[in-house]
Model the fold of this input.
Amino acid sequence: MLKALLFDVDGTLADTEREGHRLAYNEAFVAHGLEWQWSAEFYGQLLAVTGGKERLRHYLEQFQPDVAWDPATGGLIGAVYQTKTELYQRRLLAGEIPLRPGVARLLREARTAGLLLGVVTTTSPGNVTTLLEQTLGAEALDWFSVIAAGDIVPAKKPAPDIYLWALAQLQLPASACLAIEDSAVGLQAATGAGLATLITVNDYTRGEDFGGALAVLSDLGEPDAPYRRLDQGGSGVVDVAQLHAWLSQ
Done:
C-alpha cells in the first residue's frame, strides 16, 4: 500500500538547471575572476556528475588541469560553490524559478489523501527550503516528513544511499513508497533502494535510458494541460488514484 511520495528536486520539482544553477555558476566564476562560462549544452554534459561540489571538482580535473587548487581541501571549489549557492538562491527569492506542471497540485492531493511527503536530492538543504518557501509558502516546509539533501550521506546518486537514509527516517519499507525523478541517475538511485519510480523528463534528460521506470512522462500534468506518456503513449493527469493504479499493475 502506498504511504509516501519521495521527490527529487532539480529537474523534478522545478526546472532549476539550465536557467538557474548554470547561470549562477557562470556568475560565480566572474565573481572569482575566473574566465569560465558553461554553455547550456556543455552544462548538460556536466550533469552526469551529481552534486555541485563534485561537478566543480570534475570540471577542474578534466577541463582546467592547469588551475592551481588543493585537492585535499578543495578551497577554490568551496569558495565558488558558496558564491554560486548564494547567487542561485537570489534567483529563487526573486521568483524566477516556478514549480513544474502538476507538482503543487499533486503535493496538495497527496497530503489530503494522507500520504507522507519527502525530498531526496543532492542539492543543498538551503536550496530546497528556499524553493519550497518561495513557490508554496513558508508553511510548506511542514508538509515534508523528511528532507534528505546535500551531503547528508557521503555517496551521491546514482548510489542508493540517500534514498535508504530517507526510508530509515520515515521508518517505511521501499514497497510503501514511490519516488519521482527526472534522470537516469536518479532512477538508478531510487530503484537501487527498492523503490518504484516515476520519471518526468526535462530537456536535459529526455533521451536517457529509463528502463525499469514505472512510467516516463513529460510532466505530472494539469487538468487543462495533461501529461504525455513517453514510454507507451497516452496522456492524463497524475493524481493519487493514478499512482495507485500504476503500482497495482
